[in-house]
């Protein structure tokens, strides 16, 4: 495999995806954070995917996947999700006049389940881990001759998520580092591949909760590993990685460093966004910001972007985060 050529191809496909999905998604704000910049002596910019449609970056991949589907315009679809990808698929399906079923784990965040049901799409619960849920969804798709939409293990999804990088390139002339939360790896695979061609000097930082560092450990091992994920505020990035996912080899090439953070650090970061910017973000977004704070001294005087990937937070978790201030 010629990795350089593959990354170049991914970059080109991301630019195509950007124009394909542009009418259907928001160009989200890139906000300079004066309080975070003053406190760290870093030029901190927040990419507010928390203000994207459905409250998450996931709509980018979902629309790109469905808009690029040409095999059968009447195809029905199946997907599996902890919530954000499911909501994104539900919106894309309904907008484009297609039908589908969403599988979620039995442990799905209540706020995300409630939001998902509002789209009127069929919802099925299975498994206590996202990998088990994904396997069941794939089997259901095969049994019912439906097309499966992976949350991350699909190049069309990766291209869609990578359109965030195209917007960053338009909005900020020089970026020294981008902090991205990593679960299955679709988001960072897209963003990282774009910058490895567009701006090779830009550092791509993979951010994970200490309670679920599956991608980091898989990259270190050179293959996908199975390990227990503990409970975490970053439920959107928790759980295992599907065997055969293209994201692991891509992450091996495009991620320059890894940072893990504790649950306390995640909660504190979420609270700071609420206090300083009056915005609610979910745990996965808190992971990226907490990771930056953990190593901010290394970036003094530089331009750093932190991708705040979503805002779908349960009331229980919001109450918990607020209680940290007492």
TrEMBL record:
Its cofactor is pyridoxal 5'-phosphate. Residues 22-310 form the Tryptophan synthase beta chain-like PALP domain. The keyword Ubl conjugation does not apply. This is L-serine deaminase. It comes from the Eukaryota. Coiled coil: none annotated. Pfam families: PALP. Keywords: Lyase, Pyridoxal phosphate. The keyword Glycoprotein does not apply.
